[in-house]
Amino acid sequence: MxxxxxxxxxxxxxxxxxxxxxxxxxxxxxxxxxMPGVARAQKAAxxxxxxxxxxxxxxxxxxxxxHGLGTCFACHGMKLEGTQLAPTLIKKDWKDAKGGDLGxxxxxxxxxxxxxxxxAFPGGISKGDAANAAVYVWSVNHRGAKP
Length: 147
Fold this sequence. Notes:
Layout: H1 16-44, H2 56-66, H3 73-76, H4 102-111, H5 127-142
Helix pairs in contact: 2-5, 4-5
């Protein structure tokens, strides 16, 4: 017949259960303490920021990329109005960046669109540049930023 152990009684394994719980607690605490570092590493790697943390400097950097190194303007137009080569990026029914969500815009910039002229990382931009370009397009549509 199995015996139910009380809260202070060691298990027959020499207290392994207690040690395992202590280790698990330590691992959880370490993970919580390391989370801010992980978030900083993701931002440094060019992860898409939370829309609440978008700054005017990020929008300006994205605008400069759109009209410069990224060469986005060549297909999407100087004011994101679209051309015969690529669709408008002004509020519309988004074909590839579903819903015009920031993450979806970023995904199009970093993965391209098969069967179209839209390549991944246009103009050879970095992942961080791609995040800024996505922030710019998103901000024009959702925050009224100047194209």
